DNA sequence: GCAAGGTC
Protein backbone atom coordinates (compact mmCIF):
# COMPACT_ATOMS: atom_id res chain seq x y z
CA UNK A 1 0.00 0.00 0.00
CA UNK A 2 1.07 3.58 -0.61
CA UNK A 3 -0.23 6.22 1.77
CA UNK A 4 -0.17 9.98 1.36
CA UNK A 5 -0.32 11.81 4.68
CA UNK A 6 -1.04 15.55 4.68
CA UNK A 7 -0.73 17.82 7.72
CA UNK A 8 -1.91 21.40 8.19
CA UNK A 9 1.66 22.73 8.35
CA UNK A 10 5.17 21.52 7.63
CA UNK A 11 6.24 21.38 11.28
CA UNK A 12 3.56 18.79 12.03
CA UNK A 13 4.46 16.80 8.92
CA UNK A 14 8.09 16.77 10.02
CA UNK A 15 7.34 15.80 13.62
CA UNK A 16 4.89 13.06 12.69
CA UNK A 17 7.25 11.74 9.99
CA UNK A 18 10.12 11.52 12.43
CA UNK A 19 7.95 9.70 14.98
CA UNK A 20 6.37 7.23 12.55
CA UNK A 21 9.54 6.85 10.47
CA UNK A 22 11.55 6.21 13.62
CA UNK A 23 14.02 8.86 12.49
CA UNK A 24 14.54 7.13 9.15
CA UNK A 25 12.90 9.22 6.49
CA UNK A 26 14.02 10.65 3.19
CA UNK A 27 13.34 14.33 2.58
CA UNK A 28 12.35 15.68 -0.84
CA UNK A 29 11.97 19.36 -1.72
CA UNK A 30 8.77 20.70 -3.24
CA UNK A 31 8.14 23.90 -5.19
CA UNK A 32 7.30 25.61 -1.90
CA UNK A 33 10.18 26.50 0.36
CA UNK A 34 8.06 25.87 3.46
CA UNK A 35 6.89 22.41 2.51
CA UNK A 36 8.87 19.17 2.21
CA UNK A 37 7.85 15.62 1.35
CA UNK A 38 9.01 12.99 3.81
CA UNK A 39 9.18 9.35 2.63
CA UNK A 40 9.39 6.41 5.02
CA UNK A 41 7.90 2.98 5.73
CA UNK A 42 5.46 2.39 8.52
CA UNK A 43 3.29 -0.45 9.75
CA UNK A 44 -0.13 1.04 10.53
CA UNK A 45 -1.47 -2.34 11.63
CA UNK A 46 -5.10 -3.26 10.94
CA UNK A 47 -6.38 -3.04 7.37
CA UNK A 48 -3.49 -0.91 6.14
CA UNK A 49 -0.53 -2.93 7.40
CA UNK A 50 3.01 -2.20 6.23
CA UNK A 51 2.97 0.85 3.94
CA UNK A 52 5.11 3.14 1.84
CA UNK A 53 4.34 6.55 3.29
CA UNK A 54 4.80 10.06 1.96
CA UNK A 55 4.09 12.73 4.53
CA UNK A 56 3.57 16.31 3.36
CA UNK A 57 1.63 19.39 4.42
CA UNK A 58 -0.30 22.48 3.36
CA UNK A 59 0.01 25.91 4.97
CA UNK A 60 -3.42 26.37 6.44
CA UNK A 61 -6.26 26.84 3.98
CA UNK A 62 -5.69 25.83 0.37
CA UNK A 63 -8.61 27.66 -1.19
CA UNK A 64 -10.24 31.06 -1.09
CA UNK A 65 -13.58 32.55 -2.07
CA UNK A 66 -13.99 34.95 -4.96
CA UNK A 67 -16.68 36.37 -7.21
CA UNK A 68 -16.48 35.74 -10.95
CA UNK A 69 -14.70 38.62 -12.78
CA UNK A 70 -17.94 40.27 -13.92
CA UNK A 71 -18.55 41.28 -10.28
CA UNK A 72 -15.16 42.77 -9.65
CA UNK A 73 -15.93 46.39 -10.51
CA UNK A 74 -16.90 48.31 -7.38
CA UNK A 75 -18.52 51.17 -9.26
CA UNK A 76 -20.63 49.39 -11.86
CA UNK A 77 -21.93 46.39 -9.89
CA UNK A 78 -24.80 47.27 -7.54
CA UNK A 79 -23.82 45.89 -4.14
CA UNK A 80 -27.09 44.03 -3.57
CA UNK A 81 -26.27 41.82 -6.56
CA UNK A 82 -23.51 40.30 -4.42
CA UNK A 83 -26.11 38.73 -2.14
CA UNK A 84 -26.88 36.24 -4.93
CA UNK A 85 -23.74 36.23 -7.06
CA UNK A 86 -22.09 32.88 -7.53
CA UNK A 87 -19.09 32.30 -5.28
CA UNK A 88 -16.08 30.43 -6.53
CA UNK A 89 -13.93 28.40 -4.21
CA UNK A 90 -10.57 27.91 -5.85
CA UNK A 91 -7.00 27.15 -4.88
CA UNK A 92 -5.35 30.40 -3.89
CA UNK A 93 -2.31 31.65 -5.74
CA UNK A 94 0.00 31.02 -2.80
CA UNK A 95 -1.24 27.49 -2.40
CA UNK A 96 -1.01 26.47 -6.06
CA UNK A 97 2.40 24.73 -5.66
CA UNK A 98 1.07 22.87 -2.61
CA UNK A 99 -2.02 21.73 -4.50
CA UNK A 100 0.17 20.54 -7.39
CA UNK A 101 2.32 18.59 -4.96
CA UNK A 102 -0.68 16.88 -3.38
CA UNK A 103 -2.23 16.07 -6.76
CA UNK A 104 1.02 14.51 -7.96
CA UNK A 105 1.71 12.56 -4.77
CA UNK A 106 -1.90 11.34 -4.66
CA UNK A 107 -1.80 9.97 -8.18
CA UNK A 108 -0.11 6.73 -7.15
CA UNK A 109 -1.43 6.47 -3.57
CA UNK A 110 -4.12 4.09 -2.27
CA UNK A 111 -5.03 6.18 0.73
CA UNK A 112 -5.04 9.83 1.66
CA UNK A 113 -4.47 10.16 5.41
CA UNK A 114 -5.41 13.65 6.70
CA UNK A 115 -3.32 15.01 9.62
CA UNK A 116 -4.76 18.52 9.93
CA UNK A 117 -5.40 19.96 13.41
CA UNK A 118 -8.45 18.47 15.09
CA UNK A 119 -10.69 21.52 15.16
CA UNK A 120 -13.43 23.00 12.99
CA UNK A 121 -11.07 24.67 10.53
CA UNK A 122 -8.90 21.55 10.39
CA UNK A 123 -11.88 19.47 9.25
CA UNK A 124 -12.56 21.99 6.47
CA UNK A 125 -8.89 22.09 5.42
CA UNK A 126 -9.10 18.30 5.37
CA UNK A 127 -11.93 18.49 2.82
CA UNK A 128 -9.94 21.00 0.75
CA UNK A 129 -6.98 18.59 0.68
CA UNK A 130 -9.25 15.69 -0.09
CA UNK A 131 -10.83 17.51 -3.06
CA UNK A 132 -7.44 18.36 -4.50
CA UNK A 133 -6.15 14.81 -3.99
CA UNK A 134 -9.20 13.34 -5.70
CA UNK A 135 -8.63 15.62 -8.69
CA UNK A 136 -5.31 13.79 -9.06
CA UNK A 137 -6.66 10.34 -8.22
CA UNK A 138 -10.41 9.80 -8.22
CA UNK A 139 -10.11 6.37 -6.55
CA UNK A 140 -8.08 7.46 -3.53
CA UNK A 141 -9.65 6.59 -0.17
CA UNK A 142 -9.63 9.14 2.65
CA UNK A 143 -8.81 8.65 6.33
CA UNK A 144 -8.32 11.16 9.10
CA UNK A 145 -5.99 11.09 12.14
CA UNK A 146 -7.34 12.01 15.57
CA UNK A 147 -4.57 13.75 17.55
CA UNK A 148 -4.02 16.84 19.63
CA UNK A 149 -0.39 16.83 20.61
CA UNK A 150 2.95 15.60 19.32
CA UNK A 151 3.82 13.11 22.02
CA UNK A 152 5.16 9.90 20.47
CA UNK A 153 2.69 7.47 22.03
CA UNK A 154 -0.22 9.75 21.22
CA UNK A 155 0.81 10.03 17.55
CA UNK A 156 1.29 6.28 17.21
CA UNK A 157 -2.12 5.66 18.74
CA UNK A 158 -3.63 8.17 16.30
CA UNK A 159 -1.88 6.51 13.32
CA UNK A 160 -3.43 3.18 14.21
CA UNK A 161 -6.94 4.49 14.83
CA UNK A 162 -8.07 6.57 11.88
CA UNK A 163 -11.55 8.09 11.72
CA UNK A 164 -13.47 9.95 9.02
CA UNK A 165 -13.52 13.66 8.29
CA UNK A 166 -16.24 15.48 10.21
CA UNK A 167 -18.56 16.82 7.51
CA UNK A 168 -20.67 18.87 9.93
CA UNK A 169 -17.64 20.81 11.15
CA UNK A 170 -16.52 21.38 7.56
CA UNK A 171 -20.03 22.60 6.63
CA UNK A 172 -19.99 25.11 9.47
CA UNK A 173 -16.75 26.56 8.14
CA UNK A 174 -18.11 26.69 4.59
CA UNK A 175 -21.08 28.73 5.87
CA UNK A 176 -18.82 31.15 7.72
CA UNK A 177 -16.61 31.60 4.66
CA UNK A 178 -19.54 32.43 2.40
CA UNK A 179 -21.21 34.83 4.82
CA UNK A 180 -18.04 36.69 5.80
CA UNK A 181 -17.05 37.04 2.18
CA UNK A 182 -20.39 38.29 0.84
CA UNK A 183 -21.12 40.64 3.70
CA UNK A 184 -17.57 41.97 3.84
CA UNK A 185 -17.66 42.81 0.14
CA UNK A 186 -21.17 44.30 0.13
CA UNK A 187 -20.79 46.65 3.08
CA UNK A 188 -17.16 47.56 2.40
CA UNK A 189 -18.06 48.59 -1.13
CA UNK A 190 -21.10 50.68 -0.30
CA UNK A 191 -19.58 52.56 2.61
CA UNK A 192 -16.22 53.10 0.93
CA UNK A 193 -17.74 54.43 -2.31
CA UNK A 194 -20.27 56.70 -0.61
CA UNK A 195 -17.88 58.12 1.98
CA UNK A 196 -15.08 58.62 -0.53
CA UNK A 197 -17.48 60.57 -2.72
CA UNK A 198 -18.55 62.82 0.15
CA UNK A 199 -15.24 63.51 1.91
CA UNK A 200 -11.99 64.60 0.31
CA UNK A 201 -10.02 63.33 3.30
CA UNK A 202 -11.33 59.78 2.75
CA UNK A 203 -10.66 59.72 -1.03
CA UNK A 204 -7.84 57.20 -0.78
CA UNK A 205 -9.05 55.24 2.18
CA UNK A 206 -10.74 51.84 2.21
CA UNK A 207 -13.52 51.96 4.80
CA UNK A 208 -13.80 48.24 5.31
CA UNK A 209 -16.64 46.45 7.01
CA UNK A 210 -16.00 43.10 8.64
CA UNK A 211 -18.31 41.17 10.95
CA UNK A 212 -15.49 41.03 13.50
CA UNK A 213 -13.82 44.40 12.81
CA UNK A 214 -16.94 46.45 13.44
CA UNK A 215 -17.98 44.99 16.79
CA UNK A 216 -14.34 45.33 17.90
CA UNK A 217 -14.51 49.01 16.99
CA UNK A 218 -17.90 49.20 18.73
CA UNK A 219 -16.40 48.11 22.06
CA UNK A 220 -13.70 50.76 21.87
CA UNK A 221 -16.20 53.53 21.02
CA UNK A 222 -18.58 52.36 23.70
CA UNK A 223 -15.98 52.74 26.45
CA UNK A 224 -14.77 56.03 25.00
CA UNK A 225 -18.33 57.34 25.16
CA UNK A 226 -18.60 56.41 28.83
CA UNK A 227 -15.40 58.31 29.53
CA UNK A 228 -16.74 61.30 27.57
CA UNK A 229 -20.04 61.28 29.43
CA UNK A 230 -18.49 60.89 32.86
CA UNK A 231 -19.16 63.53 35.49
CA UNK A 232 -17.40 63.15 38.84
CA UNK A 233 -19.71 62.89 41.80
CA UNK A 234 -18.75 63.89 45.34
CA UNK A 235 -19.27 61.45 48.15
CA UNK A 236 -18.72 61.35 51.91
CA UNK A 237 -17.80 58.57 54.24
CA UNK A 238 -17.25 58.08 57.97
CA UNK A 239 -13.89 56.94 59.25
CA UNK A 240 -13.58 55.36 62.68
CA UNK A 241 -10.15 54.89 64.19
CA UNK A 242 -9.10 53.00 67.31
CA UNK A 243 -5.75 52.85 69.02
CA UNK A 244 -4.97 49.70 70.97
CA UNK A 245 -1.92 47.60 71.79
CA UNK A 246 0.27 50.19 70.07
CA UNK A 247 -1.61 49.69 66.80
CA UNK A 248 -3.88 52.05 64.90
CA UNK A 249 -6.94 50.33 63.44
CA UNK A 250 -9.13 52.05 60.87
CA UNK A 251 -12.63 50.63 60.58
CA UNK A 252 -14.62 50.86 57.35
CA UNK A 253 -18.17 52.15 57.32
CA UNK A 254 -20.76 49.53 56.34
CA UNK A 255 -22.61 52.08 54.21
CA UNK A 256 -19.30 52.66 52.42
CA UNK A 257 -20.23 56.14 51.16
CA UNK A 258 -23.20 58.46 50.67
CA UNK A 259 -23.67 61.08 48.00
CA UNK A 260 -25.44 63.56 50.29
CA UNK A 261 -23.26 65.67 52.56
CA UNK A 262 -26.07 66.48 54.99
CA UNK A 263 -26.90 62.80 55.41
CA UNK A 264 -23.27 62.06 56.20
CA UNK A 265 -23.30 64.80 58.84
CA UNK A 266 -26.43 63.35 60.44
CA UNK A 267 -24.86 59.87 60.59
CA UNK A 268 -21.70 61.32 62.12
CA UNK A 269 -23.71 63.23 64.70
CA UNK A 270 -25.39 60.02 65.85
CA UNK A 271 -22.04 58.29 66.20
CA UNK A 272 -20.67 61.12 68.26
CA UNK A 273 -23.73 61.12 70.52
CA UNK A 274 -23.10 57.46 71.32
CA UNK A 275 -19.58 58.36 72.56
CA UNK A 276 -18.41 54.73 72.69
CA UNK A 277 -18.10 52.02 70.08
CA UNK A 278 -18.92 48.43 70.92
CA UNK A 279 -17.52 45.23 69.41
CA UNK A 280 -20.52 43.27 68.11
CA UNK A 281 -18.81 40.42 66.33
CA UNK A 282 -15.39 38.79 66.11
CA UNK A 283 -15.14 36.12 63.43
CA UNK A 284 -12.17 33.93 62.67
CA UNK A 285 -12.49 31.85 59.55
CA UNK A 286 -10.32 30.07 57.01
CA UNK A 287 -9.75 31.89 53.75
CA UNK A 288 -8.86 30.24 50.45
CA UNK A 289 -7.24 31.76 47.41
CA UNK A 290 -8.04 29.47 44.52
CA UNK A 291 -5.42 28.19 42.13
CA UNK A 292 -5.96 29.14 38.47
CA UNK A 293 -7.96 27.15 35.92
CA UNK A 294 -6.18 25.16 33.20
CA UNK A 295 -4.87 27.55 30.54
CA UNK A 296 -6.83 28.46 27.40
CA UNK A 297 -5.71 30.58 24.45
CA UNK A 298 -7.88 33.51 25.44
CA UNK A 299 -6.38 33.51 28.94
CA UNK A 300 -2.90 33.29 27.47
CA UNK A 301 -3.48 36.28 25.17
CA UNK A 302 -4.87 38.28 28.10
CA UNK A 303 -2.15 37.35 30.57
CA UNK A 304 0.73 37.83 28.12
CA UNK A 305 0.17 41.61 28.07
CA UNK A 306 -0.69 41.66 31.76
CA UNK A 307 1.98 39.48 33.41
CA UNK A 308 4.73 39.39 30.80
CA UNK A 309 4.21 42.76 29.08
CA UNK A 310 4.16 41.02 25.71
CA UNK A 311 1.34 41.98 23.30
CA UNK A 312 -1.46 39.51 22.68
CA UNK A 313 -0.35 38.88 19.12
CA UNK A 314 3.31 38.32 20.04
CA UNK A 315 2.40 36.03 22.95
CA UNK A 316 0.42 33.80 20.60
CA UNK A 317 3.15 33.76 17.96
CA UNK A 318 5.66 32.63 20.57
CA UNK A 319 3.33 29.95 21.92
CA UNK A 320 2.88 28.66 18.35
CA UNK A 321 6.66 28.45 17.97
CA UNK A 322 6.99 26.55 21.27
CA UNK A 323 4.32 24.18 20.02
CA UNK A 324 5.86 23.48 16.63
CA UNK A 325 9.12 22.68 18.40
CA UNK A 326 7.40 20.22 20.67
CA UNK A 327 7.83 22.09 23.97
CA UNK A 328 4.17 22.85 24.68
CA UNK A 329 0.81 21.47 23.60
CA UNK A 330 -1.35 23.04 20.88
CA UNK A 331 -1.71 26.70 21.86
CA UNK A 332 -5.13 27.32 20.30
CA UNK A 333 -7.60 25.73 22.63
CA UNK A 334 -10.82 26.69 24.36
CA UNK A 335 -10.62 23.84 26.85
CA UNK A 336 -10.09 24.65 30.52
CA UNK A 337 -10.43 21.11 31.87
CA UNK A 338 -7.93 18.28 31.74
CA UNK A 339 -9.25 14.96 30.53
CA UNK A 340 -9.48 12.61 33.55
CA UNK A 341 -7.47 10.01 31.64
CA UNK A 342 -4.57 12.34 31.00
CA UNK A 343 -1.22 11.34 32.50
CA UNK A 344 -0.41 14.52 34.40
CA UNK A 345 2.20 12.79 36.59
CA UNK A 346 4.44 12.07 33.60
CA UNK A 347 4.17 15.67 32.42
CA UNK A 348 5.09 16.90 35.88
CA UNK A 349 8.04 14.49 36.12
CA UNK A 350 9.54 16.12 33.00
CA UNK A 351 9.89 19.34 34.98
CA UNK A 352 11.70 17.99 38.03
CA UNK A 353 15.12 18.80 36.60
CA UNK A 354 14.47 22.52 36.32
CA UNK A 355 16.58 24.65 38.67
CA UNK A 356 13.71 27.05 39.44
CA UNK A 357 10.62 24.87 39.72
CA UNK A 358 12.13 21.36 39.73
CA UNK A 359 11.78 20.96 43.49
CA UNK A 360 8.20 22.16 43.36
CA UNK A 361 7.48 19.56 40.66
CA UNK A 362 9.17 16.81 42.69
CA UNK A 363 7.10 17.73 45.72
CA UNK A 364 3.95 17.42 43.61
CA UNK A 365 5.00 13.87 42.71
CA UNK A 366 5.67 12.95 46.31
CA UNK A 367 2.33 13.85 47.80
CA UNK A 368 1.50 17.48 47.03
CA UNK A 369 -0.36 16.72 43.82
CA UNK A 370 -4.00 17.80 43.68
CA UNK A 371 -6.35 17.33 40.75
CA UNK A 372 -6.64 20.47 38.60
CA UNK A 373 -9.83 22.49 38.77
CA UNK A 374 -12.28 22.01 35.90
CA UNK A 375 -13.59 25.03 34.04
CA UNK A 376 -16.77 24.99 31.96
CA UNK A 377 -15.25 24.97 28.46
CA UNK A 378 -14.32 21.99 26.32
CA UNK A 379 -13.74 22.21 22.58
CA UNK A 380 -13.28 18.43 22.36
CA UNK A 381 -10.27 18.98 20.15
CA UNK A 382 -7.39 20.17 22.30
CA UNK A 383 -6.43 19.89 25.96
CA UNK A 384 -5.55 23.01 27.96
CA UNK A 385 -2.16 24.50 27.10
CA UNK A 386 0.57 22.68 29.02
CA UNK A 387 4.28 21.89 28.72
CA UNK A 388 5.12 18.70 26.78
CA UNK A 389 8.87 18.68 27.29
CA UNK A 390 11.30 20.50 29.52
CA UNK A 391 13.46 23.15 27.88
CA UNK A 392 16.15 25.49 29.18
CA UNK A 393 16.45 29.17 28.49
CA UNK A 394 19.56 28.68 26.32
CA UNK A 395 17.68 26.41 23.93
CA UNK A 396 15.13 29.14 23.11
CA UNK A 397 15.63 31.97 20.62
CA UNK A 398 14.68 34.89 22.85
CA UNK A 399 14.02 36.13 26.35
CA UNK A 400 10.32 36.47 25.47
CA UNK A 401 10.15 32.81 24.39
CA UNK A 402 11.54 31.88 27.76
CA UNK A 403 9.00 34.09 29.55
CA UNK A 404 6.10 32.47 27.72
CA UNK A 405 7.39 28.92 28.22
CA UNK A 406 7.97 29.66 31.89
CA UNK A 407 4.46 31.07 32.25
CA UNK A 408 2.83 28.05 30.61
CA UNK A 409 4.85 25.66 32.79
CA UNK A 410 4.31 27.52 36.06
CA UNK A 411 0.62 27.80 35.29
CA UNK A 412 0.44 24.04 34.66
CA UNK A 413 2.27 23.17 37.90
CA UNK A 414 0.01 25.62 39.78
CA UNK A 415 -3.02 23.78 38.38
CA UNK A 416 -1.66 20.51 39.78
CA UNK A 417 -1.03 21.85 43.27
CA UNK A 418 -3.19 23.05 46.17
CA UNK A 419 -5.03 26.31 46.74
CA UNK A 420 -3.35 28.87 48.97
CA UNK A 421 -4.79 28.97 52.46
CA UNK A 422 -5.01 31.61 55.16
CA UNK A 423 -6.97 32.70 58.19
CA UNK A 424 -9.07 35.80 58.31
CA UNK A 425 -10.22 37.72 61.36
CA UNK A 426 -13.17 40.08 60.98
CA UNK A 427 -14.03 42.55 63.72
CA UNK A 428 -17.38 44.35 63.58
CA UNK A 429 -18.17 47.31 65.76
CA UNK A 430 -21.26 49.47 66.22
CA UNK A 431 -21.37 53.08 67.25
CA UNK A 432 -24.86 54.42 67.74
CA UNK A 433 -26.71 52.79 64.86
CA UNK A 434 -23.76 52.81 62.50
CA UNK A 435 -21.77 49.68 61.78
CA UNK A 436 -18.11 49.41 60.93
CA UNK A 437 -15.73 46.54 60.27
CA UNK A 438 -12.13 45.66 59.64
CA UNK A 439 -10.41 42.43 58.77
CA UNK A 440 -6.95 40.98 59.11
CA UNK A 441 -5.45 38.21 56.99
CA UNK A 442 -2.73 35.73 57.84
CA UNK A 443 -1.46 33.64 54.93
CA UNK A 444 -0.71 30.15 56.26
CA UNK A 445 0.13 28.09 53.15
CA UNK A 446 1.28 29.54 49.84
CA UNK A 447 1.03 26.23 47.96
CA UNK A 448 0.44 27.06 44.27
CA UNK A 449 1.66 30.63 44.80
CA UNK A 450 5.18 29.29 45.35
CA UNK A 451 5.36 28.38 41.65
CA UNK A 452 2.80 30.83 40.19
CA UNK A 453 4.87 33.94 40.83
CA UNK A 454 2.50 36.21 38.91
CA UNK A 455 -0.03 36.44 41.71
CA UNK A 456 0.59 37.88 45.14
CA UNK A 457 -1.26 37.22 48.37
CA UNK A 458 0.15 38.82 51.46
CA UNK A 459 -0.77 38.84 55.11
CA UNK A 460 -2.19 42.18 56.21
CA UNK A 461 -1.15 43.96 59.37
CA UNK A 462 -2.17 41.90 62.38
CA UNK A 463 -5.27 43.24 64.11
CA UNK A 464 -4.92 43.75 67.83
CA UNK A 465 -7.07 41.48 69.98
CA UNK A 466 -10.74 42.45 70.23
CA UNK A 467 -13.21 40.59 72.41
CA UNK A 468 -16.93 40.42 71.88
CA UNK A 469 -18.76 43.29 73.68
CA UNK A 470 -15.55 45.27 74.23
CA UNK A 471 -16.33 48.96 74.41
CA UNK A 472 -13.91 51.70 73.51
CA UNK A 473 -13.79 55.40 72.87
CA UNK A 474 -12.49 55.82 69.34
CA UNK A 475 -9.43 57.92 68.87
CA UNK A 476 -11.10 59.56 65.91
CA UNK A 477 -14.51 59.60 64.20
CA UNK A 478 -14.83 61.95 61.28
CA UNK A 479 -16.06 62.51 57.78
CA UNK A 480 -13.82 61.98 54.79
CA UNK A 481 -14.65 63.37 51.39
CA UNK A 482 -14.01 61.94 47.96
CA UNK A 483 -15.18 61.93 44.35
CA UNK A 484 -15.94 59.13 41.92
CA UNK A 485 -13.27 58.68 39.29
CA UNK A 486 -13.68 58.39 35.54
CA UNK A 487 -13.77 55.01 33.83
CA UNK A 488 -10.61 54.36 31.82
CA UNK A 489 -10.20 53.59 28.12
CA UNK A 490 -10.11 49.94 27.10
CA UNK A 491 -6.89 47.97 27.54
CA UNK A 492 -5.98 44.99 25.38
CA UNK A 493 -6.94 42.34 27.98
CA UNK A 494 -10.28 44.10 28.54
CA UNK A 495 -11.00 44.27 24.82
CA UNK A 496 -10.15 40.58 24.41
CA UNK A 497 -12.50 39.73 27.29
CA UNK A 498 -15.33 41.58 25.57
CA UNK A 499 -14.64 39.92 22.22
CA UNK A 500 -14.47 36.52 23.89
CA UNK A 501 -17.68 37.00 25.85
CA UNK A 502 -19.47 38.04 22.64
CA UNK A 503 -18.00 35.46 20.28
CA UNK A 504 -16.16 38.02 18.13
CA UNK A 505 -13.35 36.22 16.29
CA UNK A 506 -11.67 33.03 17.42
CA UNK A 507 -9.19 32.70 20.23
CA UNK A 508 -6.44 32.85 17.62
CA UNK A 509 -7.73 35.82 15.59
CA UNK A 510 -8.86 38.31 18.23
CA UNK A 511 -5.39 39.83 18.37
CA UNK A 512 -5.50 40.26 14.55
CA UNK A 513 -8.86 42.03 14.54
CA UNK A 514 -7.46 44.46 17.08
CA UNK A 515 -4.60 45.15 14.67
CA UNK A 516 -6.98 45.53 11.73
CA UNK A 517 -9.08 48.30 13.29
CA UNK A 518 -5.84 50.17 13.98
CA UNK A 519 -4.63 49.65 10.41
CA UNK A 520 -7.94 51.06 9.09
CA UNK A 521 -7.44 54.04 11.38
CA UNK A 522 -10.68 53.45 13.24
CA UNK A 523 -8.77 53.06 16.51
CA UNK A 524 -5.51 54.32 18.03
CA UNK A 525 -3.34 52.62 20.63
CA UNK A 526 -1.61 54.85 23.14
CA UNK A 527 -0.02 54.80 26.56
CA UNK A 528 -2.22 55.73 29.48
CA UNK A 529 -1.30 59.11 30.90
CA UNK A 530 -1.22 60.23 34.52
CA UNK A 531 0.13 58.72 37.68
CA UNK A 532 -0.80 55.63 39.60
CA UNK A 533 -0.97 51.94 38.91
CA UNK A 534 -2.51 52.20 35.43
CA UNK A 535 -0.01 54.73 34.06
CA UNK A 536 1.89 53.50 31.01
CA UNK A 537 -0.59 50.75 30.21
CA UNK A 538 -1.59 50.58 26.52
CA UNK A 539 -5.16 51.64 25.88
CA UNK A 540 -7.40 52.10 22.86
CA UNK A 541 -9.25 55.25 21.77
CA UNK A 542 -11.34 55.65 18.63
CA UNK A 543 -10.43 58.11 15.86
CA UNK A 544 -12.97 60.65 14.56
CA UNK A 545 -13.78 58.26 11.73
CA UNK A 546 -14.25 55.39 14.18
CA UNK A 547 -16.68 57.40 16.30
CA UNK A 548 -18.55 58.65 13.22
CA UNK A 549 -19.04 55.12 11.85
CA UNK A 550 -20.39 53.77 15.12
CA UNK A 551 -22.72 56.70 15.76
CA UNK A 552 -23.89 56.69 12.16
CA UNK A 553 -24.77 53.00 12.14
CA UNK A 554 -26.39 53.22 15.56
CA UNK A 555 -28.61 55.99 14.20
CA UNK A 556 -29.49 54.01 11.09
CA UNK A 557 -30.91 51.24 13.20
CA UNK A 558 -29.73 50.57 16.71
CA UNK A 559 -31.26 47.13 16.98
CA UNK A 560 -29.37 45.83 13.95
CA UNK A 561 -26.37 48.10 14.12
CA UNK A 562 -23.38 46.51 12.46
CA UNK A 563 -21.20 47.85 15.25
CA UNK A 564 -22.99 45.80 17.87
CA UNK A 565 -21.85 42.26 18.65
CA UNK A 566 -25.27 40.55 18.48
CA UNK A 567 -25.22 39.53 14.82
CA UNK A 568 -21.84 37.85 15.03
CA UNK A 569 -22.64 36.22 18.34
CA UNK A 570 -25.80 34.75 16.88
CA UNK A 571 -23.89 33.46 13.87
CA UNK A 572 -21.35 31.70 16.15
CA UNK A 573 -24.19 29.94 17.95
CA UNK A 574 -25.61 28.82 14.61
CA UNK A 575 -22.22 27.51 13.45
CA UNK A 576 -21.99 25.40 16.61
CA UNK A 577 -25.44 24.02 15.79
CA UNK A 578 -24.24 22.98 12.35
CA UNK A 579 -21.25 21.26 13.97
CA UNK A 580 -23.64 19.38 16.21
CA UNK A 581 -25.74 18.33 13.25
CA UNK A 582 -28.74 20.28 14.55
CA UNK A 583 -28.82 22.74 11.66
CA UNK A 584 -27.60 22.83 8.08
CA UNK A 585 -25.26 25.05 6.16
CA UNK A 586 -27.86 26.11 3.59
CA UNK A 587 -30.44 27.06 6.18
CA UNK A 588 -27.99 29.26 8.07
CA UNK A 589 -26.72 30.98 4.93
CA UNK A 590 -30.25 31.72 3.69
CA UNK A 591 -31.56 32.96 7.04
CA UNK A 592 -28.54 35.17 7.63
CA UNK A 593 -28.54 36.66 4.16
CA UNK A 594 -32.25 37.47 4.50
CA UNK A 595 -31.48 39.33 7.75
CA UNK A 596 -28.64 41.24 6.18
CA UNK A 597 -30.70 42.19 3.10
CA UNK A 598 -32.85 44.18 5.52
CA UNK A 599 -29.81 45.73 7.16
CA UNK A 600 -28.42 46.63 3.75
CA UNK A 601 -31.68 48.21 2.62
CA UNK A 602 -31.83 50.27 5.79
CA UNK A 603 -28.20 51.34 5.43
CA UNK A 604 -28.76 52.43 1.84
CA UNK A 605 -31.96 54.40 2.45
CA UNK A 606 -30.64 56.06 5.61
CA UNK A 607 -27.07 56.62 4.52
CA UNK A 608 -27.42 60.32 5.29
CA UNK A 609 -27.06 59.36 8.99
CA UNK A 610 -23.51 58.22 8.30
CA UNK A 611 -22.78 61.26 6.16
CA UNK A 612 -24.03 63.59 8.89
CA UNK A 613 -21.94 61.93 11.59
CA UNK A 614 -18.82 61.96 9.43
CA UNK A 615 -19.39 65.65 8.75
CA UNK A 616 -19.73 66.26 12.47
CA UNK A 617 -16.61 64.35 13.51
CA UNK A 618 -14.31 64.75 10.50
CA UNK A 619 -15.00 68.39 9.70
CA UNK A 620 -16.75 69.82 12.72
CA UNK A 621 -15.63 70.65 16.25
C1' DG B 1 -9.29 48.17 -3.17
C1' DC B 2 -13.61 44.10 0.04
C1' DA B 3 -13.77 39.16 5.25
C1' DA B 4 -12.13 35.79 8.53
C1' DG B 5 -9.73 31.81 9.08
C1' DG B 6 -5.76 28.96 8.61
C1' DT B 7 -0.28 29.44 8.31
C1' DC B 8 5.28 31.19 6.92
TrEMBL record:
It is an enzyme of class 5 (isomerase). InterPro entries: Topo_IA (IPR000380), Topo_IA_2 (IPR003601), Topo_IA_AS (IPR023406), Topo_IA_cen (IPR013497), Topo_IA_cen_sub1 (IPR013824), Topo_IA_cen_sub2 (IPR013825), Topo_IA_cen_sub3 (IPR013826), Topo_IA_core_domain (IPR023405). GO terms for biological process: DNA damage tolerance; DNA recombination; DNA repair; DNA topological change; double-strand break repair via homologous recombination; mitotic sister chromatid cohesion; nuclear DNA replication; reciprocal meiotic recombination. Coiled coil: none annotated. It catalyses: ATP-independent breakage of single-stranded DNA, followed by passage and rejoining. Residues 166-600 form the Topo IA-type catalytic domain. Its EC number is 5.6.2.1. The keyword Lipid metabolism does not apply. GO terms for cellular component: nucleus; RecQ family helicase-topoisomerase III complex; site of double-strand break. Residues 2-148 form the Toprim domain. Introduces a single-strand break via transesterification at a target site in duplex DNA. Releases the supercoiling and torsional tension of DNA introduced during the DNA replication and transcription by transiently cleaving and rejoining one strand of the DNA duplex. The scissile phosphodiester is attacked by the catalytic tyrosine of the enzyme, resulting in the formation of a DNA-(5'-phosphotyrosyl)-enzyme intermediate and the expulsion of a 3'-OH DNA strand. Belongs to the type IA topoisomerase family. This is DNA topoisomerase. The lineage of its organism: Eukaryota, Fungi, Dikarya, Ascomycota, Taphrinomycotina. The gene is top3.
